[in-house]
Amino acid sequence: MNGLEKITDRIINDARAYADRTAAEAEAEAAAISGDFEKAAEAIRKEYRERAEKEAAGSDARARAAAAGAEKSVVLGAKSELVGRVYSEAEKRLTGLNKEERLAFISGLMRRAALECIKEEKESAEYYESGELEFADEYEILLNETDLAELGAKVCAEADRLSGELGKKLRLSDKSAAINGGLILKAGNVERNCSVSSLINEARRETETEIYRRLFGQE
What we know:
By secondary structure, this protein is of the alpha+beta class. The chain has helices spanning about 5-30, 40-95, 100-125, 145-165, 195-215, and strands at about 140-145, 170-175, 180-185, 190-195. A 4-stranded mixed β-sheet has the order 2-1-3-4. The radius of gyration is 35 Å and the shape is elongated. Residues about 1-25 and about 35-40 have low confidence and may be disordered.
């Protein structure tokens, strides 16, 4: 017998015990009535029995419904926790990359973020009249403290290479960002968050339904 069944049975047993006590009280009251009041006593007994039966039946139904609801909540909670572990594990792996892997990861993010900003600037320039908008002359790249210290020189070299490839100046900031990996790209007042936590949250929004289906065979 599992925990939920024990809880259900305890609730039901309590309900039945209450019904038995109610019936006993009815019998005691009926026994005190005699003679000409026998019919009234029988009516009282009947009333108490019916009341007790209704109370027990209602308690049984409520107990089982409550247990079913509790079981469903437990199952849903367990499934949600398991899905959460998938993304937690992905985040853990990204933040645990070695130096070479982190450099490749950051370089790829830097290129993708820069291309997205360039594309947005181009679309905005086509929509607005010439001179209406001013775009940043360069993109500033911010890393966390550890990556800046360990990979700063190589990221700076990669930023210079991408600047030539993309036709937009990319510059590594000498300031660090409070992120758990990845980077932040700043284009003037516009900030693009490509930190690991932000990327995982974005991936979860886009893939959680599919992950749930793969894990449990349903949405």
